[in-house]
Amino acid sequence: MSDVQTYQQSGEAQFGDYVALLKPRVMSLVVFTALVGLLVAPVGVHPVVGFAAILFIALGAGASGALNMWWDADIDAVMNRTKTRPVPAGKVQAGEALGLGMALSGIAVVMLALSANLFAAGLLAFTIFFYAVVYSMWLKRLTPQNIVIGGAAGAFPPMIGWAVATGGVSVESALMFGLIFMWTPPHFWALALFMKEDYHKAGVPMLTVTHGRAETRRQILIYTVLLAPVSIWAALTTIGGPFTLAVAVVLNAIFLKGAYDIWKRPEAQAEGDKYAVEKTFFKFSLAYLFLHFAAFLVEALLKTYGLGGWA
Amino acid sequence: MSFRPDHELHQRRFSRNLGLGLTLVAFVVLVFALTVVKVTRGDPMQAFDHTVRPELQPAATGGTQP
């Protein structure tokens, strides 16, 4: 590990390049799930406090993204999907990503503590630590279970949103965590099935590389089956209701059908149609999470009109 | 009197400086808004201003006497 890797600096880094370090697309998912966690909580929050809290949760997530880009610059440079990121593209130096990530982490945690409460801030600090250290530095290059355990980092935002309102955790917030946690492996392994060269080239021990593609297909089905009861259970709690339950049943039926199709088909067939089923499943996985959390939000809205919820 | 023209560096870094400046202004506005909300807890802010303000008088029962 004595290699020194340098990236050719190309032009002046612009403001947008620093924003790109914060992974804005991941941030948008964090903002949405944290907002749902905040809005479906049984305790109301002043709009300004709620806005600030969501902003600082997003900033904390962005900071962990910058730390990830600092640490993973070497493998990002090899993978097609990530080689245009600011550090491997030579727009921002790796040290700058580290500095920005550390500074924004501190600001986000302190400001969340001041605007909301210490518990939510502690959860945010743990999330940043989990993503940057446990996932990026430790597990990502060590075990094919990297996605499973690393998925926890992406699952915390609704729990933090809930903690901003209530100051604690509950079955409901744990189930929102569980929903994203169980959803992450099928989502990423479907991606790994059709981006196969990328992870192989980078030497990241993705399940497709270490255990083969047939096993990956089997694991996608297993996690999709395990996801369904978590989703249904969440729909049966105080954040759910008949509407959420109906949405959950439909979403899980489609997701299970997709996972079953992926499991059933041989690799040759997948190569023949350029991974059409896997790509459709991946796209639907994004819709699955968005619609599921949107259903919680709609249910909360219905409750304000005396509809929705389990009366 | 003549000013020296801007160094080329200033032009190259204009977007970066503008973005950072606007971010800092937004941060100050947010902290100010948070402070107002935290201090007033959403209630209108008012205090003694040398005129009789009945709404500031402690309630007849349960109020604290000076």
From TrEMBL, chain A:
UniProt xrefs under PROSITE patterns: UBIA
One GO location term (cellular component): plasma membrane
E.C. number: 2.5.1.141
Keyword set includes Transferase: yes
Enzyme class of the recorded protein, top EC level: transferase
Database matches in CDD domains: PT_UbiA_Cox10 (cd13957)
Family membership: Belongs to the UbiA prenyltransferase family. Protoheme IX farnesyltransferase subfamily.
Function: Converts heme B (protoheme IX) to heme O by substitution of the vinyl group on carbon 2 of heme B porphyrin ring with a hydroxyethyl farnesyl side group.
Additional remark text: Carbon 2 of the heme B porphyrin ring is defined according to the Fischer nomenclature.
Identification of the protein by name: Protoheme IX farnesyltransferase
Source taxonomy: Bacteria, Pseudomonadati, Pseudomonadota, Alphaproteobacteria, Rhodobacterales
Name of encoding gene: ctaB
Automatic annotation (TrEMBL), chain B:
Key words of the record: Membrane, Transmembrane, Transmembrane helix
Name of this protein: Cytochrome C oxidase assembly protein
Taxonomic placement: Bacteria, Pseudomonadati, Pseudomonadota, Alphaproteobacteria, Rhodobacterales
UniProt key word Transmembrane: yes
Residue stretches spanning the membrane: 20-37
